[in-house]
Amino acid sequence: DSGVTQTPKHLITATGQRVTLRCSPRSGDLSVYWYQQSLDQGLQFLIQYYNGEERAKGNILERFSAQQFPDLHSELNLSSLELGDSALYFCASSVSGTGLDEQYFGPGTRLTVT
Amino acid sequence: DQQVKQNSPSLSVQEGRISILNCDYTNSMFDYFLWYKKYPAEGPTFLISISSIKDKNEDGRFTVFLNKSAKHLSLHIVPSQPGDSAVYFCAARLNRDDKIIFGKGTRLHILP
Fold first, then answer.
1. N or C: which end of chain B has fewer CB within 10 A?
2. Bond prior to A8 in cis (omega within 30° of 0)
3. Mean pLDDT score of chain B, rounded to an integer?
4. Which residue is closest to A55 within chain B, CA to CA?
């Protein structure tokens, strides 16, 4: 158990819909990262927040957005969903925002778009 | 208990030479191995991968070797370039539905 929690574990929705994925970092971690893991793809970094502020942005689509709240939990919002958005979405947290300390990954949310 | 281990926290290599980054794993059920490269303040970037049914995969200057009997994989970078200075993460996947388990990373310094 990494200490990072993600809900829901599974999500099935239709194309065009909007979903929100939630992540709670480990106690004491200020930084949250979101990743997308598609079939046969490596982990793709989406976005990073540090203490409520956006710190780094990766391959995140404009249809996707995220935020980190004062209690440090984070939400990833995916809208206008397409079939290709079906993937595992991971959240990770780390103590600092440098990106070089170890990231602890949550169990992931499996999103299936039908 | 670390299932994916990168025992060298850092490595310095002269520009133009070969960089060899090593990774050991403990779970023989891993079916897919990946290497990620990470610059400061950026997320990891996928570099190269190898399926457990292969022993070598090459992509340009990067080659990954897998020795299943030794539960060991390595990443070779030839020739090393200044832009290769970064942290490299070895990662492994248990099955298609599982998350990727990362090693702690090796910081590679390419010396001029």
1. N
2. yes
3. 88
4. B41
